[in-house]
Amino acid sequence: MKTLKIKIDGKEVTAKPDQTILELATENGIYIPTLCHSPALEPAAMCRLCMVELYEGRRKKFVTACNFPLRRDVEIKTDTPDIRQGRKLIIELLMARCADSPLLQGLAKEYGANVQRFSDLKDDCVMCGLCARVCEKVGGKTLTLSGRGVEIHVNTAFSEASEFCIGCGSCVQICPVNSIVMEDVAGERILKIHGREAARVKLVHCEMCNKHFGPVIDLTKVMSKFDKGAIPPSNANICPDCARIKLAKRIAGRYYDTI
Amino acid sequence: MQQLKQAAESNVNTPRITSPKALEDYRASLASKYGHDVPTVIICCGTGCRPSNAVEVAELLEKGLAEADFQGKIVPHVKATGCHGFCSRGPIVELEPQGIFYQKVKPKDVPEIIEKTIKGGELIKHLQYKDASKKVFTHTNEIPFYAKQSRLVLKNIGKINPFDIDDAIATGTYGALAKALSSMTPGQIIEEVKTSFIKGRGGAGFPTGIKWESCASQIGNRYIICNADEGDPGAFMDRSLLEGDPHRILEGMAIAAKAIGSNRGYIYVRLEYPLAIQTLTQAIQQAEAMGLLGDNIMGTGFNFKVSLSMGAGAFVCGESSALMSSLEGKVGRPRPKYIRSVEKGFRDSPSNLNNVETYANIPDIILKGGEWYKSIGTKESTGTKVFSLTGNVHNIGLVEVPMGVPLREIIFDIGGGVPKKRAFKAVQTGGPSGGCIPAQHLDIPVSFESLDQVGSIMGSGGMIVMDENICMVEVARYFTHFLVEESCGQCTPCREGLIRMEEILERITHGEGREEDPDTLEEIGKFVTNFSLCGLGTSAANPVLSTIRHFREEYETHIRHKKCPAGVCKPLYSLKIDEEKCVGCGICKKRCPVNAITGDKKKPHVLEIEKCIKCMECHKNCDFAAVIVL
């Protein structure tokens, strides 16, 4: 396959066609900061923190590293004064939304950002959109971006608690500023965004230890794919810990006459 | 409207065109009904004239002519057309073939027009157009507003009934499509468009031929999309085209489809254009019924189906990738465009999106050739451009001029200059994300390149003229506010940057500006331009950056001296009546809603500043410029 000759921060490297700048940089140990990127998801280029300078002949362009596909031999500079200045402003603007985030504080230090430059917007979200995108990807149909302009925010449909949440917790795990909260309370898993309940999912009750564990997932469709009786004795209502004990007991029972 | 319905019904009997030759024959058969010398009373029923009872005028004319006794002479027929462009003078009535022009016609004027002019051949003075110097003009083509334009794209608008396909065919429409289908290969069509060097009229100015060529080279299902989501405040070029000459756009799209190898097209039109939706819907129906669109067009075996899709009012949906998202039924948010939509656009397929005006230019390029088109305009920007001229200018309306015409000519010769003897201050081109151009640059030729050099953009062709009573800081604040509301909110610079710019502008207009504010605005502005995701974001700072560039002293007066010299930012000025200039006419006293002005007749009046609410009624209405802004 054809390879491309790319010069990145003075280093001559080769790239595969359609590889993104971010992938190439990571491969070559060059750090580019990101807020809205996850290798598991399609790049959205929303936070604009990964902006780099691209030189092609005499032309210079600003492009986002996370989604720019390399197709020609070009030169890339990832840490010029213009880029640093822009990133500093992004951080300053986002610090006004969630000053408490350790991630942003770290970035602010790195880029010398004035963390109190803009008045506090009293928000808890950097609007990276990762939660909404991962929710769509896993088929959760719960979180989405509503509103336009400054009013854009993570929300559920019609701002009501969603009935489609599967309680997978992907959004909680992916949030870069840890603003989504998930708690298991009294047999239910509660998802909270902006301090408000976004979904409530029933948890399965373990038949062995009586504790609650994972969320109830409607398996009717999956079950219908099997012939009747072909489903092995189910562990569906037993928590992973008890399932392990149960299996261990069965193995032990087969070889030793202990039970 | 009765007449419109008749046109629709009469078309039921129109034949199906089965070959390009049949189209020519059919056109020839229409000459007796639609020729130039057929006596016709034309009335503008565009969106601008309708609120002034244009439809009622048309109906009364029709009724009046049917009842009048013409003693054997030919009774002229009434034709309701699209926008004539001279919107500040509407409703407009034209009498063909003489070319007599009547303006601001009211329903009560109809009997007089029929009796005096149509039957008696006598002119009615009070309906004639007079310019600022009171000179009277009789014929349409003598009026400077029309005489100095070169109407190519707009040539049929105001001449044909947009609901009647026969009228369009009689003027030559679909002839270019016949030529493209019968005697040209897709490669030849693209070559012709490339030779013409027409650049996209939506604003970015990308060469159309190159776009078509790269779309045609892709593999897979291709789509033709027409961007009719015209959202710029004060811009109505596309609306008038859609309302006045829908077949020209359909023809342009069909030629593009042939060139690119597509058989599916969409027109994305905003729902706020109800009349355009009506004309387009009927135009598509009529063209399909006649075999000029749809399956087996003119018997050549080429298929092209066009559907309408209505936008729901988001300004950002005029951006091509947001438009395609919306067309797919998703939220209209722009997508990153490093992979162009000609490669992967609507439904992830190769899609060619052009603006209404671009498609409207195509038929002439095909008929008369790319070389002919290139001979109009400048070397880099070829052809003509339609502008909607609004704001503080005498002649508000649609103006089509060749590229390269100086701004001064558009504003002063065609537009008639600034009313009320006020001084010209700036012209804003390119819609909300365009820039403001001051008087010293009035002699630059209008082209994509020259407007870019003075910090503005061509945009889709909005042109707002501002006089000395307009505050540039307030203008920047107004447009920034518009963009804050219309930003999609996805990317950080546009969402967070614009709101901070608005915050700063807000405080300057309230007299709380800080010394460093213009520099901060420039810093954020440049950042928003370089770091934003889509075209809206990258041009959103233009109003601020261009006003700081050309009117920095006005910002400084606001910040340092807490004064608004134009008298717009209320906390920053007060009013006074100049004793020497005041003649004591009493108009200001009569107009003042809070009785803050006192004084005897023919003696200088006095304004009590404590009572004044700065509504500016006295200032606006004083004929002696005696009310001064301090």
Please tag this protein with its features.
heterodimer; A: 259 residues; alpha+beta; Ubiquitin-like (UB roll); 5-stranded mixed beta sheet; 4-stranded antiparallel beta sheet; globular; B: 630 residues; alpha/beta; Glutaredoxin; Rossmann fold; 5 domains; 24 helices; 20 strands; disordered N terminus
Briefly characterize the structure.
The complex is a heterodimer of chains A (259) and B (630). Chain A has helices spanning 21-27, 81-95, 102-111, 130-138, 170-174, 220-224, 240-255, and strands at residues 4-8, 11-15, 51-56, 59-64, 75-77, 144-146, 153-155, 181-185, 188-193, 196-205, 212-215.
What features would you describe in this structure?
The complex is a heterodimer of chains A (259) and B (630). With 259 residues, chain A is of the alpha+beta class. Chain A folds into three domains: 4-111, Roll (Ubiquitin-like (UB roll)); 130-202, no CATH class; 214-257, no CATH class. Chain A contains seven helices and eleven strands. In chain A, helix 2 runs antiparallel to helix 3. The longest helix of chain A has 16 residues, at 240-255. Chain A is globular, with a radius of gyration of 24 Å. Chain A starts with a strand and ends with a helix. The model of chain A has no long low-confidence stretch (mean pLDDT 90). Chain B is α/β, with parallel strands linked by helices and 630 residues long. Chain B has five domains: 2-145, Glutaredoxin (3-Layer(aba) Sandwich); 172-374, NADH-ubiquinone oxidoreductase 51kDa subunit (Rossmann fold), CATH 3.40.50; 384-467, Ubiquitin-like (UB roll), CATH 3.10.20; 472-560, de novo design (two linked rop proteins) (Up-down Bundle); 574-629, Alpha-Beta Plaits. Helices cover 40% and strands 15% of the residues of chain B. Chain B has 24 helices and 20 strands. In chain B, strand 12 and strand 13 (397-402) form a beta hairpin. Chain B is globular and about 80 Å long. Classes of the chains: A alpha+beta (259), B alpha/beta (630). The A-B interface holds A 43-49, 51, 62-64, 67-69, 82, 85-86, 89-90, 93-94, 96-97, 118-119, 127, 129, 145, 147-152 and B 314, 316, 331, 336, 338-339, 484-493, 495-497, 499-500, 503, 523-524, 527, 530-533.
